[in-house]
């Protein structure tokens, strides 16, 4: 029921997706990072737990894809999970100095969408741009500007739409970029607003992903005003045509409600609110590192709570169908400590997460059902 890996070092890397199908790829093969030599005059402490060797992994046609942070450019790597020394560099991604990227692999495994700060960008909330990298050709195109750097682009299941967070003045929004070939190749892909609320009502949206069997986008919202907390919501059908129709109806309703315009100049009308179905309360804290399971039945996330007299980040699981939220069961052999980055196994039955070092206990990675 539990696999706890050997002690780990937490590096500046970002997992792009859990795994992706192995494909032929160019780029130089990487070399394994050498282990640091032990310091002279020091001997292992008897209080430090000894790591249990892991059984060898079963052969797989899947590879991990991750990005490695650099001051002015990030590197995207592919590795064999059974042999981490089998590492292939797929791309070099330039960005504004000091800013990393937020990448996501397309459903067909051929493209990477990511948010990056341009050289003249200042605000992470409003100045990032979304780019798409074609892994085969190596070409990169900008598909949206003025987006929030701190979120990961979300692909629709067919790879035709990209969902992003954009902050406009006092409004927080989720937009979609229609990546299907436009009639005029010189025009940028159309952008439509999916969700929109004033910041006094909703502080932020975070798109999570799709139900693979339906055109349903799941998202979280951090509530504003006096009802602070994190909530889970959904929007369906999350298609370009449906979003365009819903927006047109909302705008027409808002215009009709304003009455007959007067000759006196008036400020432009306030854009109508666009909200999805917010159906599940997650926590009165800020939920972070959210991950939707492959079958869209559960969401894993972190919230801070009191554990053994300390405030620690712990993994919680939200069951979408049962509409219940519960902390992950206590893991035998794993001491209390800050957990991080829950990620679902492709089979959807297991979730893995990291744990930071704490006292004499080393950092670890655990996988639980």
From TrEMBL:
It holds the Pfam family PD40. Residues 38-51 have a biased composition (Low complexity). Residues 29-54, 347-369 are annotated as: Disordered. InterPro entries: 6-blade_b-propeller_TolB-like, WD40. This is Dipeptidylpeptidase IV N-terminal domain-containing protein.
């Amino acid at each position: 029921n539990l696999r706890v890996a050997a002690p780990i070092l937490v590096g500046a890397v970002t997992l792009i997706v859990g795994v992706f199908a192995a494909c032929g790829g160019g780029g130089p093969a990487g070399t394994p990072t050498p282990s640091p030599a032990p310091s002279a005059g020091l001997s292992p402490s008897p209080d430090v737990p000894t790591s249990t060797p892991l059984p060898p992994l079963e052969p797989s046609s899947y590879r991990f894809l991750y990005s490695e942070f650099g001051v002015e450019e990030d590197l995207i790597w592919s590795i064999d999970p059974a042999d981490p020394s089998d590492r292939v560099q797929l791309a070099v991604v330039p960005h504004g100095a000091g800013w990393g990227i937020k990448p996501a692999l397309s459903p067909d495994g051929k493209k990477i969408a990511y948010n990056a700060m341009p050289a003249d960008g200042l605000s992470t909330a409003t100045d990032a741009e979304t780019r798409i990298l074609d892994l085969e050709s190596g070409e990169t195109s900008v598909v949206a500007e003025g987006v929030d750097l701190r979120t990961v682009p979300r692909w629709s299941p067919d790879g035709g739409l990209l969902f992003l967070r954009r902050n406009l003045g006092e409004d927080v929004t989720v937009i979609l970029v229609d990546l299907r070939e436009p009639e005029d190749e010189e025009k940028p892909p159309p952008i439509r607003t999916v969700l929109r609320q004033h910041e006094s009502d909703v502080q932020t949206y975070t798109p999570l992903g799709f139900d693979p069997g339906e055109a349903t986008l799941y998202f979280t919202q951090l509530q504003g005003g006096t009802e602070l907390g994190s909530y889970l919501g959904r929007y369906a059908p999350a298609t370009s045509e449906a979003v365009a129709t819903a927006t047109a109806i909302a705008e027409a309703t808002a215009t009709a409600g304003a009455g007959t315009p007067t000759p006196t100049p008036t400020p432009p009308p306030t854009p109508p609110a666009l909200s999805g179905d917010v159906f599940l309360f997650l926590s009165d804290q800020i939920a972070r590192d959210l991950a939707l399971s492959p079958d869209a039945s559960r969401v894993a996330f972190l919230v801070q709570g009191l554990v053994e007299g300390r405030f620690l980040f712990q993994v919680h699981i939200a069951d979408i169908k049962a509409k219940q939220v519960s902390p992950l069961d206590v893991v035998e052999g794993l001491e209390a400590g800050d957990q991080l980055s829950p990620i679902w196994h492709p089979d959807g039955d297991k979730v893995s997460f990291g744990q930071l070092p704490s006292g004499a206990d080393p950092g670890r990675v655990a996988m639980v059902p």
